Amino acid sequence: MFKIGDFSKLSSISIRMLRHYDKVELLQPEKVDEQSGYRYYLAAQLKK
Predict the structure, then answer these.
(1) Model confidence over 1-48: pLDDT tens digits?
(2) Domain count for the chain
(3) Which domain holds residue 16?
(4) Is the distance from CB of 9 to CB of 48 less than 8 angstroms?
(5) Alpha helices, DSSP H only, in the chain?
(6) Which residues form the HTH merR-type domain (predicted)?
């Protein structure tokens, strides 16, 4: 799993856009840590 920053670099999608995509349910993280709020993405999501 990748944190949002790492996923952003690999996908060439800005962190701001990833947060927006999550909000509009276009590309949602696989997991969101309940305590920290960190978003985690899977490598398989890079192909979408």
Answers:
(1) 999 999 999 999 999 999 999 999 999 999 999 999 999 999 999 986
(2) 1
(3) 2-47
(4) no
(5) 4-11, 15-23
(6) 1-48
